[in-house]
Amino acid sequence: MKVVKPSEVAHEPAASALFTGNPVTRQNVFQPNDGTNLNLGIVSFSAGSRNKFHKHTSDQILIVTEGTGVVATDNEEATVTEGDIIIIPAGENHWHGAPGATPMAHITVTAKGSQTEQTEK
Fold first, then answer.
1. Shortest CA distance to 52 belongs to which of 8, 23, 18?
2. Longest C-alpha distance within the chain, in Å?
3. Beta bridge partners of 74
């Protein structure tokens, strides 16, 4: 068993071409060599930030932990708030973040080894 306290996990800048807008940070709750079969992190979007359209090779689960944001696919867009749980099937083109005036944070879960393909320039 492993107990992780998010308050004790460092916030690191999410410095990647996948993100656009204002600063985004990530807390890597499980590191790649922690012996789990999951990738799990907490991503904090400041107001006016989001990730670009992308898709994963595994399903993705998002659990909104604070604020208000948006999750969008090629066909729909949903406003999400604290407590909402979103399931994005493998291969579905999507983006998520806080493109409006409020910040948003979520836990993200994918299968270990899942690959991300950015589809928006």
1. 18
2. 41
3. none
Report the pLDDT averaged over residues 45-51: 98
Residue 92 token pair: 């579905």
Average pLDDT for 65-80: 98
Q: Any idea where the domains of the chain sit in the sequence?
A: 6-118
Could you name the CATH architecture of 6-118? Sandwich (2.60)
What's the confidence (pLDDT) of residue 108? 97
**What spatial distance separates the first Cα and last Cα of the chain, rounded to whole Å?**
41
* Pick from 65, 54, 58: nearest CA to 119: 54
- Reported residue count of the chain is 121
d(CA 11, CA 1) in angstroms, rounded, equals 23
Say how far apart CA 55 and CA 34 lie, in whole Å: 24
Residue type, 60: Q
Measured distance CA(68)–CA(54) in Å, rounded: 21
Measured CA to CA, the distance from residue 18 to residue 108 in angstroms comes to 15
